[in-house]
Structure formats: structure tokens, C-alpha cells
Design goal:
Elements (H helix, E strand, L loop, with lengths): L2 E5 L4 H13 L4 E8 L2 E12 L4 E2 L6 E4 L1 H15 L26 H5 L20 H10 L17 H13 L3 H13 L3 E2 L27 H8 L4 H7 L13 H5 L7 E3 L1 H8 L7 E2 L2 E2 L6 H5 L3 E4 L6 E4 L27 E5 L3 E6 L4 E7 L10 H13 L3 E2 L5 E2 L1
Antiparallel strand pairs: 1-3, 2-3, 2-14, 3-4, 5-7, 6-7, 8-9, 10-11, 12-13, 13-14, 15-16
């Protein structure tokens, strides 16, 4: 397998593990990018972007990054908070009055960012293509009764997070979520990262290769098993009531790529993910582009909820919009995927295994994207092996549970 790009000698093990992903772990096409003190130290890509045509994964290849998008959406909210335009402790109705229906008037912006809002899924049946109709989904969520009292528990808002946070951003700025992200983040930083992909970039998109649950050794996480056997459950509502978006192949459609879906719809590559996090690893700014004041970073990186996730059914830890290190390796194999990072790091995984994060202590940013999905929602062995190699290169050690520390 031809691996292209550059890798500093200090991080040679990252290249070794990237190569092993192709040789031993079933990787098809992927990219990994790491910056240290703002400078790229790893920029690698390789493999095949499209199995049907054998189109190679190139430097320009981009791919669906699923829930890594949530971090981009959360960043938009924190940019506004850092500027004093959005109060994260204020009720959502201050910015979105219609949201107060059905007893949601006391829901705070921070509840939405930390998956405590009680709206992990729509309960009214959504029509085909609903996720491509922003007004339809946001109106349905605003009118809905929460599935638990906001602020009393947390449960992954896997598909609704982007509509909820994105509508707050829209109400504050007058711009759609994708427009605001491009104006304030991807444009100034020169990132290959879109929420609403221009049609002329479609030829650069790698095709997603979903998990085949019939293959030997594939273990579906409890979330998916519950959804398929109990469609009325929270996992069932989240994964089945989305207007067909989660149907096989739909996420690779032009309609899906064109839509602005701030929970799951981002299109990027490793360089784009690491580039978004680069300013956050450096006090909030990079190369003259300030995303947030340094004083905003503790709100982005500090844990606000932890414990059993009411939707996913396994432990999770969240800051305001970002995932934190979670060790689930002690769980049964089908639910053991987590995220093993130092406590200072914050970021987000994407379904199937993609990842982006910032670590202000080590001043690194990291991005990993791929087209062949693993079976879970968090980080599988391919991405974790790259993360582990980065921290070994920095002289970190692992605790008994696998979390990295200096």
C-alpha cells in the first residue's frame, strides 16, 4: 500500500501504525494529520477512495466525518460566547422563543451543548428527506415535549444536536450554521471542511464503506441492537426516525452532502479536522485568526456530565459540546469502544472511527478520517493506535485503564 505525505522523525511510529492499519486492520482509504506548536508534524494519506473505480485517496480527498461535525457546531457556539453574543447559561428561549413549548422554557443553552436537553430524537414521525429541511426539523423539535427533564441526565443527541445548537447560532447571527462556520472558521483558516458541500467538490469525496453486520466477527454495539429490536426506545427513535437519513447509502447522496447538518453532516479530511483544532491547542488563535479568547477554553474542555448515557447505554463524558476521554475497555467487546486521551484533551469522534481533537497542554491538534467504518460510534483500534503513537512520541505513559498521562 502506497502511503504518501510527510512525517517528522519524532513521530515515525505514527507512520508505522498508519501502515499497519492498511496491512493488518482492514483500512481501505484514510488520512491522518498532527500539528505541534502549530506546525504539521504528520500529514499522511493513502489507500483507495472508491472501491468501485479504484480511485486512489489523494491529498485532496475528503470524506463524511459524521459526529466529528458536532465539534465544529459547538465551536460556533463558543465563538459567539467568547464574543459576548451568546450566554451559555441563559435559557434557550432568550434566543429561540418558540423553543419554550411543552415545558422547555427553563432549558439552558448549556443543556443543549452537553446532551442534557432531553431531545435526542423526534417523537413525531418525520417524512422522507426531513433532515434536508432545516425548518421542518427545528420546528418539530421546538414543539416537542422533552423525553426527560432537561438538566437531570445526559443522553447522546446523536442526530438532533446540530439542529438544536445550529438554530441557536442562526437566531443569534442571522446566518445558517454552514454559513457562519465558513465565515468564521473554515474560510479564515483555509480548511477543507464543509457543512453543506458545494457540488463541484463531489468528485473529491471518498465513498463511505459501511459495516456489514453479517461478516464473521462483527459485533454490533448494544445501541444498534436495541434500536432494531425496540424501535420505540430512545436508540430506536434516534436511529429510525430521521426521514431515511440512516438508510444504507443515503448519507453518500448529493442531497445529504449539500444539506447543513451540524450533528452528522460534515465533509472534511484529517488536515481539515486538525486544522480546526489547531487554534484551540494554542490558546484560541493561530496565524492571526482568533477563534475564541483563551478564557473560553476551560468551558470547552471541562467535563460537565459523566456517567451512564441515557441513549447510548454505556458511560460517556462531555464538556460543552466536546467529548472527553472515556475508558470503556472493561465493557463487553461490542461496547468497549471509547476514547483514550489525556484529561486536558477535548474533541469528538465520528461514527465508524474518525476523530479530531486539541490538547492545549501538549499544544497538539489531531485529525484522522477514513472511509471504511468500524462497527461502533467511538474510536476503534485504527484511530486509537495513531493517537497512542502520538503520545508515546511525546513521552506520555498510560495508566492501568489506558488513559494517557505525562
Amino acid at each position: 500500500m502506497l502511503i504518501q505525505g510527510t512525517c517528522a522523525s519524532q513521530f515515525a511510529e505514527v507512520r508505522t501504525e498508519f501502515e499497519r492499519n492498511f496491512a493488518e486492520r482492514g483500512e481501505v482509504g484514510a488520512s491522518v494529520h498532527v500539528t505541534l506548536d502549530g506546525e504539521p508534524v504528520v500529514d499522511l494519506w493513502g489507500g483507495v477512495a472508491d472501491l468501485q473505480t479504484d480511485r486512489p485517496w489523494s491529498e485532496e480527498t475528503i470524506v463524511h466525518v459524521w459526529s466529528c461535525t458536532k465539534a465544529a457546531t459547538a465551536l460556533c457556539a463558543h465563538i459567539l460566547a467568547s464574543r459576548g453574543e451568546l450566554d451559555l447559561n441563559a435559557p434557550v428561549v432568550r434566543y429561540w422563543p418558540e423553543y419554550g413549548a411543552e415545558g422547555k422554557d427553563a432549558t439552558l443553552v448549556r443543556h443543549v451543548l452537553s446532551h442534557q436537553a432531553g431531545l435526542p430524537a423526534a417523537t413525531s414521525a418525520l417524512p422522507a428527506g426531513a433532515f434536508y429541511d432545516w425548518e421542518l426539523v427545528t420546528s418539530a423539535l421546538a414543539a416537542q415535549k422533552p423525553l426527560w427533564e432537561p438538566g437531570t441526565r445526559h443522553g447522546y443527541h446523536g442526530l438532533t444536536f446540530g439542529f438544536l445548537v445550529g438554530e441557536i447560532v442562526r437566531r443569534v447571527t442571522g446566518l445558517t450554521l454552514g454559513q457562519f462556520f465558513e465565515k468564521e472558521v473554515s474560510g479564515p483558516l483555509g480548511l477543507d471542511f464543509w457543512m453543506g458541500l458545494p457540488e463541484d467538490l463531489e468528485p473529491h469525496v471518498a465513498h463511505t464503506i459501511p459495516v456489514d453486520p453479517t461478516q464473521p466477527g462483527v459485533l454490533l454495539p448494544s445501541l444498534f441492537v436495541t434500536a432494531l429490536t425496540q424501535p420505540e426506545s430512545l436508540p430506536g427513535l434516534m436511529l429510525l426516525n430521521n426521514g431515511g437519513y440512516m438508510a444504507p447509502g443515503e448519507s453518500d447522496s448529493r442531497a445529504a452532502h449539500a444539506a447543513e447538518m451540524g450533528a452528522i453532516g460534515g465533509i472534511s479530511n484529517a488536515r481539515g479536522l486538525a486544522g480546526m483544532y489547531r487554534p484551540l491547542a494554542l490558546g484560541g488563535s493561530y496565524n492571526g485568526v482568533r477563534l475564541v479568547e483563551e478564557s473560553q477554553l476551560p468551558q470547552m474542555s471541562s467535563v460537565v456530565v459523566a456517567g451512564l448515557d441515557a441513549v447510548v447505554g454505556v458511560p460517556s463524558r462531555f464538556a460543552l459540546g466536546f467529548q472527553k476521554a472515556t475508558d470503556n475497555t472493561y465493557l463487553p467487546p461490542q461496547d468497549s469502544e471509547g476514547l483514550l486521551l489525556p484529561e486536558e484533551a477535548f474533541g469528538h469522534t465520528g461514527m465508524g472511527g474518525s476523530l479530531g481533537f486539541a490538547d492545549p497542554r501538549t499544544r497538539i491538534s489531531f485529525g484522522y478520517t477514513m472511509n471504511r467504518q468500524g462497527p461502533g460510534l467511538a474510536l476503534n483500534v485504527r484511530g486509537q493506535s495513531l493517537v497512542d503513537a502520538v503520545y508515546r512520541a511525546l513521552g506520555y505513559r498510560q495508566s492501568g485503564g489506558g488513559t494517557w498521562f505525562a
